[in-house]
Write a structure and sequence with these properties.
mainly beta; OB fold (Dihydrolipoamide Acetyltransferase, E2P); 1 helix; 6 strands
Amino acid sequence: MRCINKVILIGNLTRDPEVKQTTGGQPIATFGMATNRAWVTRDGQKHSSSEFHEVVAWGHLAEVCGKFLRKGKLIYVEGYLKTRSWDTPEGIKKFRTEIVANDMIMLEKRSDDDIGDANYPMETSGMEDASMPDAMEDDQMEDDSM
């Protein structure tokens, strides 16, 4: 039987992307996204809620995210869920579930600052990096900083 692990989000960045490199030299970008939903109950009361997501991008997509994304931007992200774990120096096991992005589209129009940049990618579809690792090694990333 087939399994599916696919995430599609449209939301706003909660912070600027942070781009680092693994010990092997591969770029990795991390950033937060918020998605919102609103609904009205049968008695007419309006409600809303927000969900916050951690997103990780690798390779060329990480570089694009670091260069063009900023807090507040509306973007489309497609990827899959990945849960990783590590032990703190105190011996406590920690877990984090992230969205590993393999596609990103900027949904807002370009700002005046970006109009002169001919290299401004409005869509990054198909920019999957063939060398994107399936799992992060413990020594590749600082766990508490992501």
